[in-house]
Amino acid sequence: MTAVREAKASAPEPAPRKVPGEASGPATAPALPRVITGRVLRTRRGGVSLRVRGRTLAATAGLLVALLVVAGITLTTGDFDLSVGEVVQALTGNGNGIADFVVNTLRMPRLVTALCVGAALAVSGAILQSITGNPLGSPDIIGFTNGSAVGALVVIVMLHGSMTQIALGALVGGLATALAVHLLMIGRGIQGFRLVVVGIGVSALLLAVNSYLITRATFQEALEAQSWLIGSLGNRLWTHAQAIGIAVAVLLPLAFFLSRRLSMVEMGDTTAMALGVNVSRTRTALLVISVALAAFATAVTGPIWFVALAAPQVARRITGSSGPALLPSALMGAVMLALSDLAVQRIFAPALLPVGTATGCVGGLYLIWLLVTESRKSRA
Question: Does 30 have pLDDT greater than 50?
Answer without folding.
Answer: no
